[in-house]
Design a protein that fits this description.
This protein has 533 residues and is an alpha+beta fold. The chain has 23 helices and 10 strands. The structure holds glutamic acid.
């Protein structure tokens, strides 16, 4: 290994850590060459020795990374300059993939949570097809908007914590979220007021009663936030300092962030019908007010309005799966890397979904399926397999408990085939498949990834790492930080991102150099000027 003017070694250290501008170049070239070869192998059965636009996109699709994924947008934009079959050299490939390096590398090394995605997705499709044969149940008919829904429809989508996605059937058909808004509203209340304050007004025990029963617990509070009384209470705890319009805006923004930036719809007819037929919900609110369950100064008519509006938000399974995937990854959206809820909030929410999410079938569902889920009368089922993936199943025919018939069947089949039941790991022997990446491969050196992403200009990966609590100012063995690498490599957007997150602008590496020195040395004048300021 030689040394450059700074005295820094010019290759990756033996321990695989140190990085500098030219330094990492050789190692990275080798990494890209490996990735290039690995992707070639992933498309089809025989490697061709080269990649094309078509083959690169195919390799992504085979891992469940859809062309619309924001993480590969810069890459797909660059690919647009090529025709489908044009051969893309290693050098071109390196330039094209740089902004998505983190994802591409994990994908090529089979480090996404479901490494054998194709097989897994095929199994899910089979389960979907089996469920289609089930014609039992009846659509909800308490409002005409639900009674009119075509009962044969079914959509299934899933999104893993690494943003691997697949959709089946009517996955883009809109449905109103109904009771599946309850976990989201509960999370919002927790984020606004904290667990202690929220649970001053709502319990956390299964009620053992019907979801809209006129009953409170022994403290005269609603039993939990997953039944109507508790959901109305959660609505009273969100955005208390705002007017109704801004409260609703906040809810829509949250759904949008949970769904990876896709704006949810809204069904005004459902809202009007809900409001017109809501005697029980009005009764519940008055009953709670009589028992002084609400915070002082609560306007219950406004809160009810807000609750009906939340139930009338429209999603598709495609979007809802990303929402569930965000809960599965502890509150960080798998496709955008944005943290929407804290880990603690999600933990509380999943606990209650597990014990109370499926109406009067909750105990049986927890026992036999063993996965947190929340259903709604529109026939939606939002299912969360923590640290693996979120699923959304929608099919409007309901059973006597108010759960989607096909949705419940889907979940039963899912845990029969895969080891996803919460307690499968202690089952003595099982013929169920565990499609997850093995645990021992999960160890991650976050600083190493951060520094590498900075040198590549991969802002997405950096924001994903941030969401997981990685310290953006952390330094490697040589005292090199993300800012040093971004400055050396001329990655202006990364420099901007890091500064906006308040990292120390003048850290010194072990040769005493600051990022500003690096920018000057490599003649990135704009960055040097920015760092000077
Ligand atoms: N809007 C319905 C109600 O409050 C929600 C029903 C549900 O999905 O459980 O009665």
């Amino acid at each position: 290994m030689g040394a450059d003017a700074s005295g820094a070694p010019d290759g990756r250290r033996a321990d695989g850590r140190g990085f500098d501008a030219e330094e990492g170049a050789d190692a990275l070239h080798a990494d890209f060459a490996n990735i290039y070869a690995a992707l070639d192998l992933k498309v089809g059965s025989k490697p061709k020795g080269h990649l094309s636009k078509k083959r690169i996109l195919k390799a992504f699709a085979a891992q469940g990374i859809l062309p619309t994924d924001v993480r590969i947008k810069a890459m797909t934009d660059r690919l647009d300059a090529f025709d489908d079959g044009d051969e893309i050299s290693l050098d071109q490939f390196t330039r094209i993939c740089r902004p998505s390096f983190g994802l591409v590398e994990r994908m090529a090394k089979d480090e996404l949570v479901i490494p054998d995605f194709r097989t897994f997705a095929g199994e899910i499709e089979t389960i979907y097809e089996r469920c289609l044969e089930n014609g039992d149940g009846a659509v909800a008919d308490y409002i005409p908007q639900l009674a009119r829904v075509e009962p044969e429809q079914m959509g299934v989508s899933f999104c893993t914590v690494d943003g691997q996605r697949a959709n089946y059937g009517d996955s883009d058909a809109p449905f109103c979220v109904q009771s599946s808004c309850k976990p989201i509203n509960y999370c919002m209340a927790l984020e606004a007021l904290g667990e202690e304050e929220v649970h001053r007004h709502v319990g956390r025990e299964p009620s053992g009663r019907s979801f809209n029963e006129l009953a409170l617990n022994h403290r005269y509070l609603p039993h939990n936030p997953m039944i109507n009384a508790g959901a109305i209470m959660a609505c009273s705890l969100i955005g208390r300092d705002k007017d109704l319009a801004d409260r609703f805006d906040g809810v829509m923004r949250t759904w949008r962030a949970l769904a990876g930036g896709d704006r949810p719809g809204y069904n005004n007819a459902v809202y009007l019908s809900e409001k017109a037929t809501a005697d029980r919900n009005f009764a519940l609110a008055y009953f709670m007010r009589e028992n002084e369950a609400f915070p002082d100064d609560t306007d219950i008519l406004e809160v009810l309005d807000f609750y009906f509006q939340c139930c009338s938000i429209e999603m598709s399974t495609e979007r809802m799966a990303v929402v569930a995937g965000t809960l599965a990854s502890g509150g960080v959206c798998p496709t955008t890397g944005e943290r929407v809820f804290s880990n603690d909030t999600v933990k509380d929410c999943l606990s209650l979904m597990y014990s109370c999410g499926m109406y009067d079938f909750s105990g049986e569902f927890a026992f036999s399926v063993g996965i947190p889920a929340k259903s709604g009368v529109s026939g939606v089922l939002m299912v969360v397999i923590p640290e693996v993936m979120g699923l959304a199943i929608w099919s409007p025919r309901l059973d006597k408990h108010g759960n989607s018939v096909r949705g419940v069947e889907f979940c039963k089949r899912l845990v029969k085939r895969f080891a996803f039941h919460n307690y499968d790991n202690i089952a003595e022997r099982s013929d169920r498949i565990d499609p997850r990446r093995p645990r021992e491969r999960e160890e991650t050196d976050y600083t190493f990834h951060l520094i590498r992403a900075a040198s590549q200009g991969d802002v997405n990966e950096i924001s994903r790492l941030t969401a997981f609590g990685v310290d953006l100012g952390s330094a490697d063995y040589d005292g090199r930080t993300a800012l040093h690498l971004a400055a050396s490599e001329g990655r202006a957007d990364v420099v901007e991102f890091l500064l906006s997150r308040g990292v120390d602008p003048r850290p010194r590496d072990r040769w005493g150099h600051t990022p500003h020195d690096d920018a000057e040395r490599h003649k990135h004048d704009g960055i040097a000027a920015r760092l000077e300021r």
